[in-house]
Amino acid sequence: MKKIVILTGAGISAESGLGTFRDEGGLWAQHRIEDVATPEGFARDPQLVHDFYNARRGQAGSARPNAAHAALARLESEHPAEVVIVTQNVDGLHEAAGSKAVIHMHGRLSAALCAACEHRWEAPEAMRPDDSCPACGAADSRPDIVWFGEMPYHMSAIWDHLREADLFAAIGTSGEVYPAAAFVQDTDRHGAHTVELNLAPSSVVSVFSETRFGKATEIVPQWVDNLLRG
Ligand code: APR
């Protein structure tokens, strides 16, 4: 086995205390997506959007990686195959657990982006609409988050990794949002073994050749132990 590609979603960070989106009482039950996760919503009320991400940035800043994040970091350091994590999550828990090859396809709470010149910098815990860009001075900054209707980041690199994957795993994601939800079809088509590790079956569970259900902090370390035993 030469390459393992792992897609993660909010479910892997749930046991670190960070909310998921579509579970009972999740973030999309508390906030309207069109108000806090679209460019139009940001244009309409930038303070409301900053309040939403400032709160999540604070929570993510005090969250700690859990046993699932730690297991994936161990897999990367101990397995002979190349291990690449493609995460939909905007928290930094994979990196905090020690994972090195992490691609954030939906952006990162820890970064601020200048909409005028595309400069990125370390976001303050509380961003404000009139924050100016340290590079060009424009008062046109935003959270470095990919909103609905925007292109996810690093897609050509991600497709390359998926094409080369011998093993594809999806962990803690509901399979409701594309293009991430199509990764399993793509890797399956290229002959990879595919496994879903989730609390409940995702919308694309039928495409996976293997499924493991349970809490990430339990099933992910077991899965990694199996892989490292060979
Ligand atoms: N262990 C494992 N899986 C869990 C756990 C847990 N402790 N808790 C929840 N889950 C699973 C749920 O069963 C669900 O399938 O995690 C998944 C979370 O799904 P979503 O809330 O839809 O999150 P995600 O799939 O990451 O959303 C994808 O949607 O709103 C956008 O940009 C946002 O990146 C996000 C994208």
Protein model, in words:
The chain is an alpha/beta fold and 230 residues long. 34% of the residues lie in helices and 20% in strands. The chain has 2 domains: 138 residues, 3-Layer(aba) Sandwich (Rossmann fold), CATH 3.40.50.1220; 81 residues, SIR2/SIRT2 'Small Domain' (2-Layer Sandwich). The protein is built from 9 helices and 9 strands. It has a 6-stranded parallel sheet with strand order 3-2-1-7-8-9, sandwiched between helices. A 3-stranded antiparallel sheet has the order 5-4-6. Helix 8 links the parallel strand 7 and strand 8. Helix 5 packs parallel to helix 9. The longest helix is centred in the first third of the chain and has 17 residues. The protein binds adenosine-5-diphosphoribose.
CATH superfamily of the largest domain: TPP-binding domain
Oligomer: single chain
Distance N to C terminus: 10 Å
Give the distinct bound molecules: adenosine-5-diphosphoribose
Strand content: 15-25%
- The helix/strand class is alpha/beta
Physical arrangement of strands within the biggest beta sheet: 3-2-1-7-8-9
Q: Shape, please?
A: globular
User: What's the average pLDDT?
Assistant: 97
Helix-strand sequence:
EHHHHHEHEEEEHEHEEH
Task: Please identify, by name, the CATH architecture of the largest domain.
Answer: 3-Layer(aba) Sandwich
Q: Could you tell me the radius of gyration in angstroms?
A: 18 Å
Characterize the largest beta sheet: strand count, sense, and whether it forms a barrel: 6 strands, parallel
Count of alpha and pi helical runs: 9
CATH fold-level label of the largest domain? Rossmann fold
Please tally the β strands and state the result: 9
pLDDT < 50 stretches? none
CATH class of the largest domain: Alpha Beta
